[in-house]
Amino acid sequence: MKNNESTVLFKQSPGLVEDLHEHSIKKQYSKGSIIVKESSYANSVLFVNRGLLKVSCSREGEKDVLLYYIKAGELSVLSFLGGIQGEKSLVNIESEKDSEIFFLPINQAAYFMRKYPLWWDYVLKMFMVRYEDLLNAVTSLSLKRIDERLLDLLESKARLSQSNTVKITHQQLADELVTAREVVSRLLKQLAQEEVLKMGRSKITLL
Q1: If 44 and its partner were Cys, which of 1, 8, 103, 175 is the partner (CB 3.0–4.6 Å)?
Q2: What is the rounded end-to-end Cα distance, in angstroms, of the chain?
Q3: CA 3, chain centre distance (Å)
Q4: Rounded average pLDDT over 61-83
Q5: Radius of gyration over alpha carbons of the chain, in Å?
Q6: What angle do CA 34, 16, 122 make, to 5 degrees?
Q7: How far is the CA of 182 from the CAs of 57, 179, 189, in angstroms?
Q8: How many other CB atoms are found less than 10 A from the CB of residue 41?
Q9: Does the pTM exceed 0.85?
């Protein structure tokens, strides 16, 4: 397991880390891979050991709306809830970059809640993090102008990738912001003129 938030959190319980490795199925995903489709059933909890996942939702006939990201050392609380309740997924989960995912069976994840108090604390923390993410998403969609949302999105991607340069197209940004590509292109040009960013071929550098 990589040296991320989870290893710091679990360092006082090596048995938990060993059990997580032993009982999980480990899979590798390349950037852009669909890991969970909306309306599918979950029988395991997704834990990101390495990489970054994008969580979005959609309405029939409409574009996906970006909700939040799941970083290395975090799990998908929605897959946890859906698996326990036997309900369909309400979201799509896609790899934002090459990722390694641990799939922990739902019954094992529930058993860990009883066996390891630290796991219980960790899951509660993840629920709080996701709750804050969803509040931020709702606030952004309902209260912020499109130019503010665009800059917020670019800054978020730069922060997550630990680089000022974000590799992304105007169309991809438009899809995540649920707007037209022409709108994004116009706003990016304006921000470039204001020397907030610099545009390149399928990449944007924040200044």
Answers
A1: 103
A2: 34
A3: 19
A4: 86
A5: 18
A6: 65
A7: 23, 9, 11
A8: 11
A9: no
Number of neighbours of residue 54 by Cβ within 10 angstroms: 22
How many residues appear in the chain? 207
Residues 162, 168: Cα–Cα separation, whole Å: 15
The pair of structure tokens assigned to 166 is 């974000």
Query: Would you state the structure tokens that stand for residue 47, as one six-digit string?
Result: 């834990």
Tokens 């204001």 sit on residue: 194
Which residues make Cβ contacts (< 8 Å) with residue 97, sequence separation at least 6? 31, 51, 52, 161
Kindly report the three-state secondary structure assignment for every residue of 119-178. Answer: HHHHHHHHHHHHHHHHHHHHHHHHHCCHHHHHHHHHHHHHHHHCCCEECCCHHHHHHHHC
Name the residue type at position 159. R
Q: What φ, ψ does residue 53 adopt, rounded to 5°?
A: -115, 145
Q: Which residue has the tokens 């939702």?
A: 57
- Rounded Cα distance between 124 and 103, Å, is 19
- 3-class DSSP assignment, residue 22: helix
Q: Which residues pair with 48 in a beta bridge?
A: 101
Q: Is pLDDT larger for residue 69 or for residue 3?
A: 69
